Amino acid sequence: MGGTQFRVLGPLEVEHAGDAVRVGGLRQRILLTLLALEADRAVPVPRLIDGIWGERPPASAKGQVWICVSGLRRRLAETGAGEVVETRPSGYALRAGRDALDLLRFRDLVAHGRHAAREGRAEEAVGLLRAGAEQWRGPVGAGLDSALLDSAAVRLEEERVAAAEECFDLELGLGRHHGIVGELMGHVAEHPFRERLCAQLMLALYHSGRRADALRVYRDVRVRYTDELGLEPGEKLRALECAILGERTVRPIPLIRTGNAIGARKRVDRTPSHAHSTSVPVLEQEKEWQTN
What we know:
Elements: E1 4-7, E2 13-16, E3 19-20, H1 26-37, H2 45-53, H3 61-78, E4 85-88, E5 91-94, H4 102-118, H5 122-133, H6 147-173, H7 177-190, H8 195-207, H9 211-229, H10 235-245, E6 250-254, E7 279-283, H11 284-291
Antiparallel strand pairs: 1-2, 2-3, 4-5, 6-7
Helix pairs in contact: 1-3, 4-5, 5-6, 6-7, 6-8, 7-8, 8-9, 8-10, 9-10, 10-11
């Protein structure tokens, strides 16, 4: 592909041999983004029509898609990118290798990070998950008016935040509480109803010696839930608050094995603390958050 890069984890960007490639027109940009999100898979023409025009496409929509594809091919060819938009029996496909598309790099890095975590290689897992997070520059489809892309952006944001939560679990297990407080505050501000993030922020603050701030996070969460949803926070978050208040036992226990931190539902390691080289004060309730 001659060094062509496609970036969709944020505003659409195309680059060839280090130079930016301008993809002209809203319709072309929506079409290319839709193709990139399904890289190497055919996107049916009706789906492209839906992405560009929504529920009220013009009678000429099919022909206009063909014009958009032709114009996109011509523009990419002029810059030396080559024939990367292919016609398939069921539609059109963007031929992009895993090194040429940020979305594929993100998913590969997250998959490798999760594998490393399952094998107990926490440091490596954190590095991979953070490298995956660095692929993001903003919301998918930013600046493009397309309900279909808005829906895709919601799904991909869920992937991004889930990977971030898993990374924070690992870093809490490694004792990096103070270093991730700021990031967690930002994530909670973006996603104020994700209880896992709220719990991670409470734990990071508590283990950084900021018990009052940890309790204040819970109070803010409770106000949001009751005012906006008419609900109380979930049982685990309420139990974590009780643990921090001291209504449940707080005692030194072994650092949770980080191999259990991501996607695992294994029995909690109860090996006596003297059998491990590192122990930190951990709330009893914290074990549930790190293994569920």
